[in-house]
């Protein structure tokens, strides 16, 4: 997913210079990808069986690869838009299925395991940047797309046998327990993740361009690679920090650090600020996603992964549109606005801390021994503040 969704960022300059893609069309292709991501997330909400389907996972992996391979086969901006829209939908389905699988199958295991898995998105970002650095002198924009498709083939083989989330026993769950009401905490969590989607995507879209305006040419692409490299270990690192801090506190800290990273190129500028910004941004955006999704699972809110991903997707669509008027004056104002939005997301995370139910309580009803046995494996872990592992806030 990291390659299939994010390789467009380093390929975009080549398409501008070699394929005749205008700046406006390039922005439209990015928006098409974000819209597709929302479509995929909504599909996971409206048809939850998709999230538990291995066929859907494998089909999405193949579709994502196919869209990359098909990009060089046309010069039509409209067709490119369709391909990026499909790629976005496939990316969302892959992420929702994989994240739900992690939250389900790795419950009770060390939280570093799902952290390293989600860090694979960062590895894809880094690989996409390194791929373009290596191909810049030997291949054109077509070769870049085909090379990225070949890379996704290899990664698809590695992820082919991932087991989606198992279906829960609905009758047993209803007969034995009633989940506590967590709507107010989930509402604050949803608002925080929605705002993060706006701020994160503005930085993710324009950070390299902003750096290019102020620093030598290699710094922009180098910073993109650094974003990916920093993102690889970040979810596992945030998971380790969760052994000491509560999940809402972690989310607040990650968002504040991310806001500082986004603001650096806008407020200071220069190569050093650009590279520090890349590390801070790359080291937090996947951690924020993991903490948020784990919090939704801990609250046991129905279809939390798909709902949170959908809100995040809407934020991604709105972000570039909201800052478009600021781009006439360069990228600094856009990055400053993005940093302020991420700070607003941190404020929502601070609200989440008020009375947060770290230890969930399940109200039990009378059930037969057979019903208790059937629900034992389906029910989320209730001990400790982490839905993924005991004694961890992730």
Report on the structure:
The protein is an all-alpha fold. It has a single domain, classed as MFS general substrate transporter like domains (Growth Hormone, Chain: A, Up-down Bundle). Helices cover 73% and strands 1% of the residues. It is built from 18 helices and two strands. The chain has a two-stranded antiparallel ribbon. Helix 4 packs antiparallel against helix 8 and helix 13 packs antiparallel against helix 14. The protein is globular. The two termini are 23 Å apart.
Number of strands: 2
Our count of helices gives 18
- Name of the CATH class: Mainly Alpha
The helicity comes to over 70%
Total separate domains: 1
Computed Rg: 21 Å
**Spans with pLDDT under 50 lasting ≥5 residues?**
169-178, 362-394
Q: What structural class do helix, strand and pairing data support?
A: mainly alpha
- Name given to the CATH homologous superfamily: MFS general substrate transporter like domains
- Molecular shape: globular
Spell out the key features of this protein:
two-stranded antiparallel sheet; 2 strands; 394 residues; single chain; disordered C terminus; mainly alpha; Growth Hormone, Chain: A; globular
């Amino acid at each position: 997913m990291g390659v299939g969704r994010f390789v467009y960022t380093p390929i975009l300059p080549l398409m501008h210079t070699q394929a005749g893609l205008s700046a406006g069309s390039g922005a439209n292709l990015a928006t098409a990808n974000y819209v597709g991501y929302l479509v995929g997330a909504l599909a996971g909400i409206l048809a939850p069986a998709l999230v538990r389907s291995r066929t859907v996972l494998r089909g999405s992996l193949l579709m994502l690869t196919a869209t990359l391979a098909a990009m060089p086969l046309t010069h039509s901006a409209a067709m490119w838009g369709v391909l990026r829209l499909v790629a976005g939908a496939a990316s969302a389905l892959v992420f929702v299925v994989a994240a739900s699988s992690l939250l389900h199958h790795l419950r009770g295991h060390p939280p570093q395991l799902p952290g390293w898995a989600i860090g694979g998105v960062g590895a894809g970002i880094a690989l996409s940047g390194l791929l373009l650095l290596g191909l810049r002198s030997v291949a054109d924009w077509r070769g870049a797309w085909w090379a990225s498709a070949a890379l996704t083939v290899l990664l698809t083989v590695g992820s082919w046998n991932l087991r989606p989330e198992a279906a829960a026993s609905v009758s047993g769950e209803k007969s034995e327990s009633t989940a506590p009401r967590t709507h107010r905490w989930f509402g604050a969590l949803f608002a925080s993740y929605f705002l993060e989607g706006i701020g994160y995507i503005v930085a993710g879209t324009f950070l390299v361009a902003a750096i290019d305006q102020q620093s030598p040419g290699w710094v922009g692409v180098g910073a993109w690679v650094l974003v990916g490299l920093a993102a690889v270990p970040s979810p596992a690192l945030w998971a380790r920090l969760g052994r000491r801090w509560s999940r809402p506190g972690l989310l607040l800290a990650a968002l504040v650090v991310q806001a500082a990273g986004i603001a650096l190129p806008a407020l200071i500028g220069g190569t050093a600020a650009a590279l520090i910004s890349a590390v801070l941004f790359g080291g937090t955006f996947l951690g924020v996603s993991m903490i948020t999704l784990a919090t939704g699972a801990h609250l046991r809110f129905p279809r939390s992964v798909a709902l949170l991903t959908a809100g995040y997707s809407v934020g991604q669509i709105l972000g570039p549109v909201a800052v478009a008027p600021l781009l006439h004056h360069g990228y600094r104002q856009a990055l400053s606005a993005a940093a302020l939005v991420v700070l607003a997301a941190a404020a929502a995370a601070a609200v989440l801390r008020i009375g947060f139910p770290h230890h969930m309580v399940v109200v039990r009803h009378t059930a037969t021994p057979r019903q208790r046995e059937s629900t034992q494996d389906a029910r989320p872990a209730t001990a400790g503040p982490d839905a993924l592992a005991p004694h961890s806030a992730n």
